[in-house]
Amino acid sequence: MSDINRRDMIGAAAAVAGGILATRAWAEPVEKHEELPTFRYAMEQQKGRITEGGSAKEATVKQLPISTGLAGVSMRLKPGGLRELHWHANAAEWAFVVKGRVRTTVIGPDSLSETNDFDPGDVWYFPKGHGHAVQNLGKEEAHFILVFDDGGFSEYRTFSITDWLGGTPPSVLEKNLGLRAAEFARFPKDELFIPQGRTPPPTDAATQKMQKMAPLTHRFPLMAQPPMRFAGGEERRVSQKEFPVSRTVTGVILDLEPGALRELHWHPHANEWLYFIHGNARMGLFGSHGRHRIEEFSTGDAGYIPQGFGHYIENTGSTKCRILIAFDSGDYQEISLSTWLASNPTGIVADNFKIADVQVGQMPDHRVFVAPKEGVRK
Ligand code: MN
Ligand code: MN
């Protein structure tokens, strides 16, 4: 449809709606290229927050305004570094270990806890409000990506144990925890965030005074799972179905071969947050009112696709592109362009595009999901 015809239709529809709306629609026609905001943030290029035992860089709605539903953090722990005991009041935490080995201990209601060791490729999930801590187990730096199911979440100055105890009267702490008030007076007065500690022993079980095992595990070995394979790449996915504790987040590792395309699709009920572990890719975002935006992503960038917006990812580099993707729902849902078209009667698809039935017949009769560099043409 030409631009003029399109405006005519919008105007006619508005005229039916009547009154002020019609006047407004004619006076201010919908612009063909209304702006979509940026959906890319160069997270790893930021300085972030650095403390003695490690560092953190975050992408929240403040840095990437479109990302209202999810936030992310890239965290590194030095050998012996630890993300101190803390909790998040407003968000669940999902994580993927990129490099190194770490140990977490999480506590929920009813004194139920779990201590787990994580290798590269493993995932954790801590429900909203559950207390936790992370230690580097190895001699190398550990690197992991954290995702939170609230775009307004900030990792900096969350509910940390040093902040809490440092601001509580020592006389109160003496009653609660058994040391003398003078000893509590020497505790850190300000949040340490990531202090430097000792590399933990192979197992800490003997030093834990309580261990009442949580019924659902908080660890899922994502990269140890067999992938879904396609001609142009593969995907590993973990939803609540595979990982029952993960009620509010689904995670994905998507590998695209050079030139491959994660096909046009949308997610009807979830927002999508992305982190480019390595590689280069182009993403196209499609919004209502004919809005389009294309942006280029490379290693260390974060991205965001709002719920219901159309999008695709194309590997533009000469090497494999690996992308971490998280959704703010434990139930994974997607609608792909190839299945949408293949599921409609041939006649309506042909008439919709003003093409011949035989051309519709040449389109895929199955879900493409990832198309190889050479495309799906038969
Ligand atoms: Mn946390
Ligand atoms: Mn998607």
Helix and strand layout, with pairings?
Elements: H1 3-17, H2 19-27, E1 40-41, E2 49-51, E3 54-59, E4 71-77, E5 82-87, E6 93-99, E7 102-107, E8 112-118, E9 123-126, E10 131-136, E11 142-148, E12 159-160, H3 161-166, H4 170-177, H5 181-184, E13 212-213, E14 219-220, E15 228-230, E16 233-238, E17 250-256, E18 261-266, E19 272-278, E20 280-287, E21 291-298, E22 302-305, E23 310-315, E24 321-327, E25 335-336, H6 337-342, H7 346-353, H8 357-361, E26 370-371
Helix pairs in contact: 1-2
Bound molecules: manganese (II) ion (2 copies).
One manganese (II) ion is lined by residues 86, 88, 93, 132.
Task: Explain what you see.
The protein is of the alpha+beta class and 378 residues long. It has a domain at 44-220: Jelly Rolls, CATH 2.60.120.10. Helices cover 16% and strands 35% of the residues. The chain has 8 helices and 26 strands. The protein has helices at residues 3-17, 19-27, 161-166, 170-177, 181-184, 337-342, 346-353, 357-361; strands at 40-41, 49-51, 54-59, 71-77, 82-87, 93-99, 102-107, 112-118, 123-126, 131-136, 142-148, 159-160, 212-213, 219-220, 228-230, 233-238, 250-256, 261-266, 272-278, 280-287, 291-298, 302-305, 310-315, 321-327, 335-336, 370-371. The strands form 4 sheets. A 7-stranded antiparallel sheet has the order 1-22-19-24-17-16-15, with no helix packed on it. Strands 2-3-4-11-6-9-14 form a 7-stranded antiparallel sheet, with no helix packed on it. It has a 6-stranded mixed sheet with strand order 12-5-10-7-8-13. α1 (3-17) runs antiparallel to α2. The longest helix is centred in the first third of the chain and has 15 residues, at 3-17. The protein is elongated. The chain starts with a helix and ends in a 7-residue tail after the last strand. Bound molecules: manganese (II) ion (MN) (2 copies). One manganese (II) ion (MN) binds at residues 86, 88, 93, 132.
